[in-house]
Amino acid sequence: MKLLQYIKKAASLPPRILLQKIQYRMKKQFLLQKRKIRDTSFSSYELLCPHTFLHRFLKDVDLSQFPKEPLSRLNNLYLQHQFDLLGSGWTAVFHGMLCKGLEGVVFEPKPSGPINPANAKESLRIKALLDPAYRPIDWHLDFKSGYRWEESTRSEKIQYGHLLGVDVKVPWELARMQHLFSFALGYALEKHPAYAIEFRNQILDFIASNPPRYGVNWVYSMDVGIRVANWLLAYDLLKDCGAHFDEAFEQIFVRSIYEHAKHIFHHLEWDPYLRSNHYLANITGLLFASSYLPKDREIQSWLDFAITELQKEGLEQFHADGSNFEASTSYHRLSGEMILFGTVMALEVGATFSSIYLDRLQKIADFIRDITKPDETIVQCGDNDSGRFMKIPPEEKGLDHRYLIRPFRNLKSLRSLIEDLSSPSQEKPAALSMYPDFGLYILRRHSWFIAIRCGSIGQKGNGGHAHNDQLSFELAIEGISMIVDPGTYLYTPLPEKRRLFRSVTAHNTLAFEDREQNLDEGIFKMTDRACAKLIQFHANHFIGEHQGFGFPHRRELLLTDNVLQGIDTLEGNLKGSASQALYFHLAPSWRIQSMDRGKAVCQHEQTTIELQTAHGHWISEPYHYSRGYGLQEKAFVLVLFTHAKTTHWEIKWYNKEAAKKLSIKKQR
Question: Closest Cα to residue 116, out of 212, 184, 198?
């Protein structure tokens, strides 16, 4: 961040908060320097770990609802060290591999570097415990672009986001090791010894290749917290199902759990003003580690701290209406998973929670239910980095979040949590759903589903995961998504693509000239100029407006049985030549059947939709739709160009019989 931006940010904070931030940063830098000096001469591994065993919480888990066949298929790929992460496609990951590249950017294979001298001896000792036939994974590699970080670099010195095409999220995602629970499930259902053996080898491989505080995989405590929780739950299930591990592995594993917990506690991603999903991952990971580790004064203090902070952050990061404060439906899922797993883990160790907190958790589930479209996918709003806390069930359907609803309704134990995650909830949503804290309004009527964005940019005005999407909407008809939010695609590897997917033209709203609704202040920051507000919302009628162009843009939507009517009004003093465009991004499964100046006809199998206007002309353009991080597929966007201050348009749905008559009429 540039000096001017730092000064501007500092000036915007209350003096008390600014002082807290300065004190916290100074203390953090002092401790970092102290550890850096120590780690230069001494190993960063805890060579005298006081702990020799772990508590257990899982017993006789009923896994009969988890399907064996897809699980077996996944595990066979994982045994070959093939991973499909963040749009990579199934890729075998190993040292010296040649990578495919990202949009033309590819780096030549780079040999593995040495472990730093102070850790080299212990690293070699751990590597010697690996099975001879095991082929090590390159944990430091962006296996999409081929760029590799050095394992001997201090984690706080790791650079990322400075090279085009390089995505640091790829090694981070792999090193969360969320696939290990799939091995545990497979072992429980099939009793295949290879799964337990591979679990042991991958854990040892990671520990030997990633000494604490070195390399790319200790940069953020968020990833450390997610990793340790996944290790522990997979280990617990393996042990419950009869897996046995040698004493040497057990000692190294327990020590690493302690190292993870200690690292998190001393590298909390805390801020006096803005804490996000990162901090939530810190405290949830710490809660897991300190629950499983045997209790002494240090461990108990970590556990007490984590439980207290979990309740605080649950109420801080989830609004009173149950929605997440980051203005993203996908980050709602990520943070929701953390709150869910953290709460159940805390209940296992005897914690109690306030009724306000427990009620908030129910509303988190309500939000997931209500943003789910008839095709069982969520409305995409804001960023989607495909982030998860744990991948249960292991076979992912990226935009289907229904699996989380039932566990929130049944907060009992880790055992019941795993059992409840085996199948999605079938809860029916209300016809009308309002989430004013988030800024999302949802209408279900007959065969229509409409979700409209109008509200905060999230993160207390930081807007780090928000888009320029005010008054944009998603539309489904007859259970089929028709008009969709294009998604996110990527973060740091391609900044221009990041800006494109956040832009007003990438959403189903009105664009005026080349102006954005909000001020772009970086890849993870925007300033709210839109100040969107709801004017009216009831059974079939929505009115909202924003100020992002320097004057009001008002949108009115009125739904009748088979027609959605839209009225877009710009209330400024417009020049006659001022260009405006309304965007309607079609889902990839829809095709444009015909188009003339005032009308466009679109079709999906037997469903036909007409978009009409008397105030402009239609064109179609190709665009890329992203259903998950790193993924994109071709689709078409309809663009309505107009110079009118008020533009009327409508979307008319023809059922199968009416569509057939329309087709016959056109043929004549």
Answer: 212
Angle at 455 between CA 274 and CA 368, to 5 degrees: 80
Separation CA 356–CA 455 (nearest Å): 24
Query: What residue spans define the domains of the chain?
Result: 59-219, 432-667
Tell me the pTM. Answer: 0.94
Q: How many CB atoms lie within 10 A of CB 401?
A: 25
Total length of the chain: 668
Of residues 300, 202, 299, 218, the one with CA closest to residue 252: 202
**DSSP 8-state assignment for residue 425:** -
Sheet holding 510-512, edge to edge: 510-512, 580-585, 633-642, 617-625
- The pLDDT tens digits of the residues spanning 363-413 come to 999 999 999 999 999 999 999 999 999 999 998 889 999 999 999 999 999
Residues near 355 by Cβ (< 8 Å), separated by ≥ 6? Answer: none
As given in the structure block, the two tokens for residue 152 are 């001997």
Q: Cβ atoms within 10 A of the Cβ of 210, count?
A: 23
- The backbone region for 658, taken as left when phi is positive above 0, alpha when psi lies in -120 to 50, beta otherwise, is alpha
Q: Tokens at residue 407, please?
A: 């566990």
Name the packing angle between helices 180-190 and 68-79 (round to 10°).
130
Comparing CA positions, the residue from 500, 504, 650 lying closest to residue 568 is: 650
Rounded CA-CA distance 159/147 in Å is 12
Locate all alpha helices (DSSP H) within 353-397, ordered by sequence: 355-370
Q: What is the distance between the alpha carbons of residues 434 and 523, in angstroms, rounded to a whole number? A: 29
d(CA 430, CA 275): 32
Domain covering 432-667, topology = Beta-galactosidase; Chain A, domain 5 (2.70.98)
Query: Tokens 């595990």 map to which residue?
Result: 75
- 1, 464 contact by CB (below 8 A): no
Spatial neighbors of 56 by CB under 8 A, at least 6 apart, are 236, 239, 240, 292
Question: Is the alpha carbon torsion for 587, 588, 592, 596 positive or negative?
Answer: positive
* pLDDT average, residue stretch 638-649: 96
CA–CA distance, 661 with 655 (Å, rounded to integer): 10
Q: Taking residues 479-506, report their average pLDDT.
A: 98
